[in-house]
UniProtKB/TrEMBL annotation:
Coiled coil: none annotated. InterPro entries: CDP-OH_P_trans, CDP-OH_PTrfase_TM_dom, CDP_ALCOHOL_P_TRANSF_CS. This is CDP-alcohol phosphatidyltransferase family protein. The chain crosses the membrane at residues 20-53, 128-149, 213-233. Belongs to the CDP-alcohol phosphatidyltransferase class-I family. Pfam families: CDP-OH_P_transf (PF01066). Keywords: Membrane, Transferase, Transmembrane, Transmembrane helix. The keyword Transmembrane helix applies. The keyword Membrane applies. It comes from Streptomyces thermoalcalitolerans.
């Protein structure tokens, strides 16, 4: 049994290595087709190595016996995101091939709608798969916001950086680590970020229209994150109030028996001069 588990783990790790190899192959194709410069090559290779290392470590911790069809779709999308990253990095030195950039991004966004359905239909949904999918989405939005910011301004980086700012804040404020309830609105807003940034990156619309589209995306994102942070804050306040109330009730429940015991002990220890209890003396006084 242990041997089979070891073999399964080795096969799972091999799939991540295959993904890294396909990523390098894509970079070679981009280099041939577009003359990818040093910045693109370095960034693309760094992305491939980092993805392979992080994913391998996560798979080792999760001890998955199979990589799964849904994760394969997400890994394919990761390869495309690596190509987009290389093209965006190279765009700072030379004009990027916009149609190729848009094409790779469009396919990556389409596959984002596929991996979740595959996971549900095959019954292979895992916490690792959901995290893998979310991180790829977040990084693609970050890369697109970097590219669009060169034409619309640095404020566009707020779109790509907001999720990472949320994660950083959660490290300082533990109450922000509370699991959020699933909401379709959150998923819809996240999907719209990629679509809006893709439209702006394509250059098909006038500058003013691109500005409006990206502002709409940012507004929706601020609303979504703001609602989640407010829910987390209210949940923490309610939890703190409940804990304080429970502590007060526990303190009263402990104090009352102790006080009663002490009172009974005092009453039992005090006796009348003739050896009669206090209760007898009180009864006699009342009779007089």
């Amino acid at each position: 049994m242990a041997l089979n588990n070891h073999e399964d783990a080795r096969l799972v790790q091999q799939e991540t290595a295959v993904g890294a190899g396909i990523q390098i192959l894509l970079l070679a194709l981009l280099g041939t087709a577009t003359g990818l410069g040093p910045a693109g090559w370095v960034t693309g290779l760094a992305f491939a190595i980092a993805t392979w290392a992080l994913l391998s470590r996560a798979l080792h911790r999760a001890r998955l016996r199979s990589f799964g069809a849904a994760n394969r779709v997400t890994l394919s999308r990761t390869v495309l995101v690596g190509g987009v990253t290389a093209l965006v990095a190279d765009s700072f030195d030379s004009a990027p091939p916009v149609p190729l950039l848009v094409g790779l991004t469009a396919v990556a966004l389409f596959l984002d709608c596929v991996d979740g359905k595959v996971a549900r239909r095959t019954g292979t949904s895992t916490a690792l798969g959901a995290r893998f999918d979310m991180e790829v989405d977040a990084f693609l939005i970050l890369v697109l916001s970097v590219y669009v910011s060169t034409s619309l301004g640095p404020w566009v980086l707020l779109i790509g950086g907001m999720r990472y700012a949320f994660v950083a804040a959660a490290r300082v404020l533990p109450w922000m680590n509370t699991p959020l309830p699933p909401r379709m609105a959150r998923k819809t807003v996240a999907a719209l970020q990629g679509v809006c940034l893709l439209v702006a990156a394509s250059g098909l619309l006038p500058l003013v229209a691109n500005l409006g589209v990206v502002l709409l995306a940012l507004g929706l994102l601020v609303w979504s994150f703001g609602r989640d942070v407010l829910w987390l804050w209210r949940t923490e306040r309610a939890r703190t109030a409940a804990a304080a109330e429970a502590g007060a009730v526990r303190e009263v429940s402990v104090t009352q028996p102790v006080a009663a015991t002490v009172a009974a002990s005092v009453a039992a220890s005090v006796t009348a001069p003739a050896g009669e209890p206090v209760e007898a003396m009180l009864g006699a006084a009342q009779a007089v």
